[in-house]
Amino acid sequence: MEITQILVNVAGLALIAAIVWYFWLYRKEGVQVAEVAGVQEVPITVKGGYDPDVIVVRRGKPVRLLFQRQESSLCSEMVVFDTIHRSAKLPEGETVAIEFTPEEPGEIPFQCQMGMLRGKVVVR
Amino acid sequence: MTDSRKTGTTPSRVVDPICGMVIDPGEAAQTRVVEGTLYHFCSDQCAEQFDRQGAASAPAPSAAAGSMPAGTGSAQDGPRELDLPITGMTCSSCVVTVERGLQGVPGVEQVHVNFSLGKAHVVYDPARADAHTLVAAIRQTGYDVGVSEIQVRISPDLECTACVGFIEEALRGVPGVLDATVSPGTDTVSVRYVAGQTDFGAIKRAIESTGYRAARAEAQEEPVDEETAAHQREYRRLMRKFWFAAAVSVPVMLVAYPELPWLYLPNLFLENVSERLVWWLFLLSGVATLPVMFYSGRQFFTGAWAAFKHHAADMNTLIALGTSSAWIYSTVALFFPHIFPEGTATPFYDVTAVVTALVVLGQALEVRAKGQTSQAIRKLMDLQAKTARVIRGGQEVEIPVEEVMVGDMVVVRPGEKIPVDGVIVEGRSAVDESMVTGESLPVDKAVGDEVIGATVNTTGTFKFRATKVGKDTALAQIVKMVQDAMASKPPIARLVDVVSGYFVPTVMIVSVLTFLIWYNFGPDPALAFAVVTAVTVLIIACPCAIGMAVPLSLVAGVGKAAEHGVLIRNGEALQLASQLKTIVLDKTGTITKGKPELTDAVAGPGFDEATVLRLAASADRPSEHPLAQAIVEGARSRGVEPVEPEAFEAVPGHGVEATVEGRRVWVGNAKLMERHRVDTTALDAAVKRLQEEGKTAMYVAVDGEAAGVVAVADTIKEDSIQAIRVMQEMGLEVVMLTGDNERTARAIARQVGIDRVLAEVLPEDKAMEVHLLKREGHKVGMVGDGINDAPALVEADVGFAIGTGTDVAIEAADVTLVGGSLKGVAYAIEISRATMRNAKQNLVGAFIYNTLGIPVAAGVLYPFLGILLSPILAGAAMAASSVTVVSNANRLRFFKAKSFAEQP
What we know:
The complex is a heterodimer.
Chain A: H1 3-25, E1 31-32, E2 35-36, E3 39-46, E4 50-51, E5 54-57, E6 63-69, E7 78-81, E8 86-89, E9 95-100, E10 106-112, E11 118-123
Parallel strand pairs in A: 1-5, 3-6, 5-11
Antiparallel strand pairs in A: 2-3, 3-4, 6-9, 7-8, 7-10, 10-11
Chain B: E1 14-15, E2 22-23, E3 30-34, E4 37-41, H1 44-53, E5 80-87, H2 93-103, E6 108-114, E7 119-124, H3 131-140, E8 144-145, E9 147-155, H4 161-172, E10 177-183, E11 188-194, H5 200-208, E12 213-216, H6 222-254, H7 275-296, H8 298-309, H9 315-335, H10 349-373, H11 375-382, E13 387-392, E14 395-400, E15 409-412, E16 421-427, E17 429-432, H12 434-437, E18 443-445, E19 450-451, E20 456-457, E21 462-468, H13 474-487, H14 492-521, H15 526-540, H16 543-563, E22 566-568, H17 571-578, E23 582-586, H18 587-591, E24 592-603, H19 609-620, H20 626-637, E25 647-651, E26 655-660, E27 663-668, H21 670-675, H22 684-692, E28 696-702, E29 705-716, H23 720-729, E30 733-737, H24 742-752, E31 756-758, H25 766-775, E32 780-785, H26 790-795, E33 798-802, E34 815-817, H27 823-858, H28 862-865, H29 871-891
Parallel strand pairs in B: 23-30, 23-32, 30-31, 32-33, 33-34
Antiparallel strand pairs in B: 1-2, 3-4, 5-7, 5-8, 6-7, 9-11, 9-12, 10-11, 13-14, 13-15, 15-21, 16-19, 16-21, 17-18, 17-20, 22-34, 24-29, 25-26, 26-27, 27-28, 28-29
Helix pairs in contact in B: 6-7, 6-10, 7-9, 7-10, 8-9, 9-10, 9-15, 10-29, 11-16, 13-16, 14-15, 14-16, 15-27, 15-29, 16-27, 16-29, 17-27, 19-20, 23-27, 27-29
């Protein structure tokens, strides 16, 4: 085996490892939400993903997520909170509020309708 | 942080930019700082609305009128009068509260609140008070003011932000207008005003005074139309991108294969194409392909990058990687051919151009088809009437439907659409409710009956009092429910979510592996093969088809159901409904009409049926007992008109005693007959037979003689039998649940063809019975009304609530049947099954496509059959697969159900 061939193979395998690490193993830090006037409020930008996409809140206090979609791609036109049976259309450029009060610690995932874009609210 | 500007007259007060209410900054419920400006809000709602609208569309945080153009909306001299409709006043003492509240407003000269009209007449000095302060004062007393909203389109386009202020100020100067908010993005202004106090003409004049023209915004039902418009814009944008990519692709293709003489364009002009020319043409292709990637394929790169930042990967990632690696490889091969093994340095720019074109075309078609899937909901929205004929000040006036208020008297003429929900107060007619309930026959409506907005009057004329308007109407609730349901997910989609989370990175890994395998073990030119196959793998994979499979079917299915008056709450309900094996039907109000009807009239010796019926109905006419009413109505419908009795007395627990045309008539049970010593032996056989049929029989005696028997029963709805048969044909076990005694229950069950009857079940035990049926191991659906049967509906796997008039959002129900017909249950199950079948087809199709397509693209067939997929073919396949999924979901729109099949 030539040296280039070895290098190419090593690079390929390293790339696979990088993909696995970057997309699956990487754990994100959540954004801790500050409380304003009794409401835990956070703006979320929707553009190819949710930014921030991991939101840490405290339980028992109302949470208000302000989604703003800044793209026209149809994928993100709706955000779905399946576990709490909530969903909302996100018209481009408008801010849409989703409010709920988490009572139990745990995770509340949200995503676009097709599940390509994901985020979650971590309740502590 | 800068403080807000203060108004000149009241320095300690600020104006809520949303509702226009003047508030003390210290008492503001919420504040926002946008671009250094501080806004105060009277309530959380206003703050939320502000957040939704964004600061751009909100007016400056004060009531500053300095920017007003002269002459527009300026205060007139002398006091101004205003009638404010007040809601929530339940007692006459409220009048005092409201009056006191209004008198406390500076500038108010006279106040008179009329309780019965629900209106406050205010005379005030426009220089010191205005409509917002008056409304705010009323709200502070705990009541509310009937407020309407209208959208007005402004033309020509708004160009300056100052104009926004002018228009808003001009509108606020119009008497009755509470607030006006211009949204420059859509060139519309939304005006909130006290209903009945202003009209479109005044609003139009105010806008025109600023130099703009005003027109009624056609799109009153904004959300859906907006969505349609957005879809259309997206479609046009994608098609433009496609045409550009296609235009570049053709010449690039024609100079891409010098080794194929018949496809190589320069061969037309030259005998011998020099290598130098080939090289230059490739270079030209490479340059021409760049704008294709960055204009037509821009969304792939921006999307991929955005996803990448989130440690995610989607279809954009695959296409961006595929097209860009093809381009980069080609370019390197073009400039540095020597670094590649002999024969592998062939550029293939055509792949980049053609794949981009095809995938963009696929996306465009997908957008268009997606619009069609949600067509059902648009149809529903289009049902809304545009105008209403309302009585205002004793006159019939035609006003936009948005201006109709609760309590308004609405006139409906033959052939007209009923504008809002209400109760008939005068006249009668038959109403075609098919668009809302799915019921094809017109329904008779008389005084006291509910009418549903968006349904169509047939031949009669009637007046009704509006009870629900705007967002509260049945139609609005239906639209909301359907939209919510369309956005939800059936459990089957959760599996998909798990898969799609791993799908794209897996494809990337497969692509790298494919490259390595071809590179190490492939035939010469190994590197070229390796690159082409790796790119093909990236391009053929179609995560979109998997991700869209279930949601698209759901949208189509839920929409289709709504067209038939079947409202499915969410995807979970839909999936469970498709799995039902047992259906429990509550008897009263579900199988039967839930109110007694006259079924038989039997004459005794010496009397005839018509006489018995006429005397019985006349005697019962003044009675309010439901059984008596049933006899009176039954007689009428058989062409026997009862007369007014000369004397009448109700005997509680027994029946009635009356004098009709000079004859003493008793109608009642055996006890009543015994009391008057009437010999009933001749009728006993008939009574016994009627009772065995589950009917309530009443004796009729005339002048002390047994004249006959009338029988009343809760009759079966016309279509119950057919619906139950359809359900049984679908393989469902149908069970009847009732509180009636066994005999009556059996009698009804026999008529409708139900074998299994659970009788004598107390209302509180219904849920328990459902629970026991579930223990048999089947999924159980329960059908009942949403109020008495709520616990049983919740206990069942799927609760079907029979609609009660205009209240369609029944909490306990998973499925609401607006029409009240059992056919809806059969239909709901049929459409659920069809939808789930469709979703599974989509899902299986998408999985098979990917699991076959990816290995073929990787070249597994090459060693055996020598088949290798070209990346261009892969691009076409990928575009086709997502279009196929969408089209398959669209098939549901043409679904024909058995349960509604026999209708004309």
